[in-house]
Structure formats: structure tokens, C-alpha cells
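FAQ: What does a ligand-bound record look like?

Like this one, built around 2-acetamido-2-deoxy-beta-D-glucopyranose:
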Amino acid sequence: MMVDHGSSGRFAPGGFLVVVAAAIYMFTCVSTASPIGLPNLRECQLATDSSVIGSPFTTRLNCCLPIPPGDVIDFSFQKYKNHNRRLRMPAHKISSDYIAKYRRAYEIMRALPQDDPRNFITQANVHCAFCNGAYKQPGTDGILIQMHFSWLFLIWHRWYLYFHERILGSLIGDPSFALVFWNWDDQRDGGNIMPAMFLPNNSSLYDANRNQANLPPTLAKLTPVMTGNDSEIINQNLNIMYQEVVTNDVAELFIGGPYRTGVDISNSTVLNAPLGGSIENGIHNAMHYWTGDPRQPLLQDMGTFSSASRDPIFYAHHSNLDRLWDKWRHGMPGGPRKDYSDPDFLNAEFYFYDENARLVKVNVRDGLDIEKLGYGYPDVAADELWINYSPLPVTTGSVVAAARAMGVPEIGAFPLNGTIVLGSAFSGIVKAPYRKSKASHQREVLVIEGLHVSRESFVSVVAFVNLPYANSSTATSSAEYVGTFNLVASPGKTITTNVKFEIGDNLKRIDIQDEPEVVITLAVKGTQSVRIKGLLIKYQ
Ligand SMILES: *[C@@H]1O[C@H](CO)[C@@H](O)[C@H](O)[C@H]1NC(C)=O
Ligand SMILES: *[C@@H]1O[C@H](CO)[C@@H](O)[C@H](O)[C@H]1NC(C)=O
Ligand SMILES: *[C@@H]1O[C@H](CO)[C@@H](O)[C@H](O)[C@H]1NC(C)=O
Ligand SMILES: *[C@@H]1O[C@H](CO)[C@@H](O)[C@H](O)[C@H]1NC(C)=O
Ligand SMILES: *[C@@H]1O[C@H](CO)[C@@H](O)[C@H](O)[C@H]1NC(C)=O
Ligand SMILES: *[C@@H]1O[C@H](CO)[C@@H](O)[C@H](O)[C@H]1NC(C)=O
Ligand SMILES: [Cu+2]
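The answer part, i.e. the structure of the complex:
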């Protein structure tokens, strides 16, 4: 049901449908918690994006990985200790010599035999295999492994890039070779366009499957729907960075929620998927969407997980996410922030191929300190622009009374409100708990409960407070903007998850932090129907 807020009045509630909450709320209980372990690589199945009937893409979905001869190696720091430290530079600032070296490394990688684990397509298939359901979680009845939507997202991709970088370096005989990072968050010094090194069509760094409307000088847009002139886009980008990286300062909100053996993320119709963190659900998916080719059914290559890392720009994109995790951890005002210390996080294990084409076993714990892994990032002066961004509100005072008069409904926590189908935008009045109950270490958090999406095409849900007339192209530069949940397409699959955003900082800036109720608006981009079970504001 699509409803245009603009035409039906400033505070119109939007289209929604409350379905009787008769459905039984099902949890898949995991009796003994345990970390995600290593799959049996001999039990591989075709990855499951294949329901796009008639799409030529279906033939590309066997991403089962080769099993090299010899024993699996345990990762050790010792082995890598004497190599040069690898400094990852911003893609828009490296020399032509460096670009030539980079091209050469990818040329050699692309030319390796197909059954070589270091071959470019096999490297890309590692992502497909662990993100599109080729392998099962050990100790379960066939629940698939999924390296997105949880606390494993950042660390798994860090290890993925770590070995990819070592392979490239080894192919050109340069152990100090480092990936570049795509500095799309830089809104001042030229990082926020597609980096020139990936553009020439005669290079190993080129990929034809990109959005041709987003070539330079088009500015990167850190949410999928963004309008305005360049300076407005820059302010929106800065606030998106501020909201995702600065105010979401606890591990669950930034890194993502717990993912343990027995949890099914891959195609969940019941609420047992953890949540992705702000950086994953927000900019990470937004930039996959922005780069992917709208001429392709699933916005390949970057726009869907099974093909994303067939574009060399993928590794530069993820390198910036990795940099921002490190920045979040060590470089924010207010002192260092904490990763998880839960053993089910620290002891999760993954397989990767090393530069000798052998299978290596790594764990989360060993990957948390990039110094120990032998690489690093330079300071980026333009980070200060988003760290110190101070979004101004566009509203004055609470709009709850006016919204109520216009018929905006009260929405409570599940199960009281059942299933709500969001139209193009949905607004509800939500109770805000009394602040005195808040402990100093706690964050005030909006929980979008039981958000359910089928993944036939890209979907985005943009959240605002105190802005009941917002829609998916409303500017994200003001203090009313809370955050965005983006989801790349994966046909045949669904996801049901709670989405959380820190909102205490927003409420203070609007000066409605003591109000007993606030108006929450969820604006939807995309053609898929999006359902939620309830809205809740709490401290955690
Ligand atoms: C590659 O780019 C050049 C311009 O730099 C253009 O003339 C040529 O048609 C392009 N080739 C392909 C295959 O796109
Ligand atoms: C690739 O094309 C560019 C122009 O777009 C040209 O300057 C360069 O020499 C070409 N390189 C090769 C290896 O053909
Ligand atoms: C961009 O738009 C804003 C708001 O409409 C306006 O104030 C500003 O002057 C515009 N800037 C440019 C460079 O056009
Ligand atoms: C549930 O939603 C309805 C609107 O359909 C609203 O009137 C009611 O107050 C809500 N109840 C709770 C407990 O949120
Ligand atoms: C979306 O909201 C903006 C204000 O945030 C308004 O200017 C615009 O007209 C709205 N668009 C639609 C389609 O309602
Ligand atoms: C996902 O789950 C739905 C509902 O249980 C099912 O119909 C569909 O076949 C599943 N898709 C895949 C790819 O397993
Ligand atoms: Cu990924």
C-alpha cells in the first residue's frame, strides 16, 4: 500500500495495516550457546540466489571452494612477524606508480588457473560461499553460514581482505603491498567520488557492471535516496557518518548483534536473526547499492553479495569499513570503545586461503588488533568533519500533540500491535521511558521490532524522530535523522530482524529529551513490502 504523505496533509499517518497478532511468536531456541565454527568444505551446495528465473545470472552461482591438498594451517602471528608493515592509503591519493603496481597484481591474480584458490574469481567466490549459503554451520541440522547481519560482519571481512592483500603482495613479490581504501566519507579532499584508479576500461581494476550514472564527478551518496545540490549532499553524508559512527558508540549498535551456532540468518521467517550494526546496515549496503549496475537484475556486481567482490573496488570499499571500525574503536572523542569480549564472538573460526594457496584457519580474537596483523591506516584529516558534525533540528518542540490530532496512531512494543505493513512511509507515536531510569553507561535506543523483508530487490528503511511528514527523500542532514536500514537483494530469501538506532543524541538536539512520547517515522524506498511487529524505545 503506497501512500503519499505530501498530498494528504502534513501529519497524515500514512498507509498501514494492522493484522491481528494471532501468529505464534516463534523463537528458535539454542540450548547451548557456542561460537560459529568451521564448516565441512566437502559439503557444499549451490548458493541460492538462483530463483531469478530466466536470469543468466543463475549459471554463475556455483561458488563452492576448491580444497587444497595438505593440512589446514593454524594462523600464527609468528609467521608474518618479519614482514614490512603494510600502510593502506586512500585510493584517490596514491601515485601512478602505485596504481601500476596495483593493476599488475590484479592482472596476475586474474590470470591464475581457475582451480587456484588465489585466482580472482575464486577469491570472489569466498564471499559468495559464506554470504549466499554454500556451507552449513557445523553442529546444526543444515543451518547455513551467513557472514552478514551480525557481530561477525566486520571481523570476517577484515580477515578476508587481510589474506587477499597478502596474496596480491606475494604475486608481485612485494610483502609491503597494501590495499587502498575508498575514502567515500571524505567530504572535503576528493574521496567521495568513485576513485579514478578503478575507472579505465583497459585495466585489471575495471568492472563494466557499475552504475554509469555514478561515475565522477557524481558525489557518493551514503543513503540510497538523496536529493539536493552538492553542499546539501555533503551535509547529509556528514550527518549519516556522525549518526552511524559517532553516536552508536556501543558494540551491539555499531558492530552488530550476537551470532552463534544454531541461529539462522540466511532465510529467516521468524525473529531469530541478530541485527547488523549501524555501519553495515547503513553505509556499507548503501555504497554497494550506489556502485552496483542498475542494468543488471540484482544490481551486479557490487549490488548483491554473490557477485560483489568480482569488482576490485569491493576490496577498497571494505577497506574503508575496516578503517572506520578501527577509528570507532580508537579514534573517537570520549576515549576508546570496546569490542565484544563474549567468548562466542572471540572463538568463532573461519577458513581463508593464504598466499601459498593453502587453507588457513583463523579466529576472531587474533584479528582484533590490526597492528598485530601488520597493517594500518594513515590519519585522515577530513574525518574531523563528520566527527564534529553538529546536526541542527528542523523542528522546534514536540510534534506529538499535532500528530495525534492528525490521526497518527500510538504504536507499542510487540506483541500488542501485531504486524504493521509500512507503506511508502509510516508514522507512529511511541512511548519514551522515564529518563531517571537511565544509567550513565546506557544508550537510549529505538528498536524497530521484527522488521521483515523479502529480498527480491533492494530495500531501504529510513528512520526519523519528530518528523511525521518525512519520506524516503527527506534530507538526512538534520538532527531528526536517526539512521537507515538497507538490504541488498537476494531473491528467494527473507530476513526478520530487530533494527536498533541510538536516538538519545537526536532527542537532546531537538530538545525533546524529557517528553514522554515521540513520533517515529519510517520511510521506505523500494517495491518490496516491509513489515514490522512494533516500535520500542528503551535504554541499554
Ligand atoms: C574504453 O574507453 C575508451 C575511452 O577511454 C572508449 O573509446 C572505448 O570505447 C571503451 N571501450 C569499451 C569496451 O568500453
Ligand atoms: C589504457 O587507456 C588509457 C586511456 O584511457 C591509455 O592512456 C593507456 O595507455 C591505456 N593502457 C594500456 C595498457 O593500454
Ligand atoms: C544548495 O541548496 C541550499 C538549500 O536550498 C541553498 O541554500 C544553497 O545556496 C545551495 N547551494 C548551491 C551551491 O547552490
Ligand atoms: C496499537 O495500534 C493502534 C493503531 O492501530 C493504536 O490505536 C493502539 O494504541 C496501539 N496499541 C499499543 C499498545 O501500542
Ligand atoms: C518528501 O518530503 C520532503 C520534505 O522532507 C518534501 O519536500 C517532499 O515533497 C516529499 N516528497 C513526497 C513525494 O511526498
Ligand atoms: C526461504 O523460506 C521460505 C519460507 O519458509 C521458503 O518458501 C523459501 O523456499 C526459502 N528460500 C530458500 C532459498 O531457502
Ligand atoms: Cu560482504
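Follow-up question: can I read anything off the structure? Yes, for example: The two ends are 34 Å apart (CA to CA).
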